[in-house]
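Saturday, quiet lab. Running sequence design on the structure tokens for the scaffold JK sent over.
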């Protein structure tokens, strides 16, 4: 028996517990389906609604797996954040499985960045990158020969004698995504997700992934799993999954978990046609870039059923966008937002505060852009240095012992930005209030303007140089 699982305990994330928008662990379920496809006996432990580690330990004792695969959901942004609590839970799961004599494989952004930590806790190997193909290859190898060394398997890091590790050659990205099986939805309790959504939101949302990777080069964006390439399923394949999902789980809404959904207007038009052909038009939410949301793309999205599009606007200052190497213009944020609204689609923005060199004037430009274009919602974060990015190298010398947020609501500045953490939290709250309450509060902005010098930690001119 192989047990697949992941390390996200919803109850260990207060912000997400309050939001209550849980999604199925896609990567975990795809890996489960692949193992099953290759003839392995599989069980799954979905950590999402578990009370604590004891639930996992009870599953280990009941199923008695010979192999435990902790396959994080690489399509979920909460996985990419690599919070301290998430790491602690994953390591506790590794130790619990090791104590029972299980072999353990781990995959995810944090383990790829820090394989030694996971190997020291008891993992036999860390699967870097996408992970599924390496998982299947090792499972097949050990099924045939339990003593076989995995050194011929690409895309892994494993321990060798004397406490050393060995990294094998990089495994190429999975190219033909249409050949992947559908996620093994039958291994998790879909009704638990339905109850959670309906109790909080009065509708039920489910997730689908249509692509892997992102071809753009924002210098703060980590790509430890899918890299900078972009592989995309065919519109027909995605619509077929929607048909299967409608027949088996019947969600009211779909969240497309891609970094970028529908890279071209041509793909979106074909997708809209397939959705119509199979009769699976369902309201959905997705992410894109401001330079891609042209009127023809918005029109195709509307026909396909798009309800909401989240755009990586990041800042109202072109100076900051250029420093981020975002590859977009403030003017494109305006035109994309208007194109979406013209077609009845909610236009929502991701905003990032605290990038090196950002001044009070730059924050003001972001506020003004929000006021002028009035996005339907915003999500505000601060610049977060992740290993493997150019941004991380830029601020690495300023990082202390703490290099990760404790949880998803932390919003801590991990490097020496222009202002202190508390100040950015105040700006975040004020921006959220303006958008969600539609009530500009110039008095509070004036108070912040007076206080901002007292919260400054460094000279933004030096940071920008």
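Result came back. Writing it out in full:
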């Amino acid at each position: 028996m192989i047990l697949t699982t992941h390390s996200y305990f919803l109850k260990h994330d207060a912000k997400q517990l309050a939001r209550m928008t849980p999604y199925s662990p896609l990567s975990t379920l795809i890996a489960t389906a692949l193992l099953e496809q290759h003839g392995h006996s599989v069980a799954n432990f979905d950590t999402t609604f578990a009370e604590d580690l004891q639930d996992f330990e009870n599953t280990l004792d009941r199923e008695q797996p010979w192999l435990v695969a902790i396959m994080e959901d690489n399509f979920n942004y909460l996985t990419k954040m690599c919070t301290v609590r998430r790491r602690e839970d994953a390591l506790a799961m590794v130790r619990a499985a090791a104590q029972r004599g299980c072999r353990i494989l781990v995959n995810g952004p944090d383990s790829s960045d820090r394989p030694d930590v996971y190997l020291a806790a008891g993992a036999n190997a860390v699967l870097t990158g996408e992970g599924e193909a390496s998982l299947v290859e090792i499972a097949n190898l050990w099924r045939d020969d339990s003593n076989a060394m995995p050194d011929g398997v690409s895309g892994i890091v494993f321990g060798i004698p004397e406490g050393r590790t060995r990294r094998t050659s990089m495994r190429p990205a999975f190219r033909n995504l249409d050949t992947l099986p559908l996620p093994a939805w039958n291994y998790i309790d879909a009704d638990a997700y339905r109850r959670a959504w309906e109790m909080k939101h009065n509708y039920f949302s489910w997730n689908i992934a249509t692509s892997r990777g992102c071809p753009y080069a924002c210098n703060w964006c980590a790509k430890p799993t899918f890299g900078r390439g972009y592989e995309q399923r065919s519109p027909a394949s995605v619509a077929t999954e929607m048909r299967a999902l409608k027949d088996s789980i019947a969600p009211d809404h779909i969240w497309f978990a891609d970094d970028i959904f529908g890279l071209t207007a041509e793909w979106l038009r074909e997708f809209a046609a397939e959705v119509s052909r199979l009769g699976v038009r369902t309201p959905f939410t997705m992410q894109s870039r401001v330079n891609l949301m042209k009127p023809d793309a918005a029109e195709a999205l509307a026909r396909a059923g798009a309800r909401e599009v989240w755009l990586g606007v990041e800042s109202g200052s072109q100076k900051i966008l250029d420093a981020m190497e975002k590859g977009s213009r403030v003017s494109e944020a305006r035109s994309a937002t208007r194109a979406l609204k013209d077609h009845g689609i909610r236009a929502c923005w991701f905003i990032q505060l605290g990038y090196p060199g950002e001044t009070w004037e730059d924050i003001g430009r972001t506020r003004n852009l929000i006021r002028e274009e009035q996005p339907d919602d915003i999500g505000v974060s601060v610049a977060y240095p992740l290993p493997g990015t150019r941004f991380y190298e830029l601020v690495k010398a300023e990082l202390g012992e703490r290099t990760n947020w404790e949880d998803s609501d932390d919003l801590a500045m991990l490097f020496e930005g222009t202002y202190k953490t508390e100040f950015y939290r105040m700006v975040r709250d004020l921006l959220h209030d303006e958008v969600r309450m539609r009530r500009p509060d110039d008095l509070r902005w004036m108070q912040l303007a007076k206080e901002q010098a007292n919260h400054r930690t460094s000279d933004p001119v030096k940071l920008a140089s």
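Notes for JK: The two ends are 56 Å apart (CA to CA). The longest helix spans residues 421-437. Ask whether to fix the surface positions before the next round.
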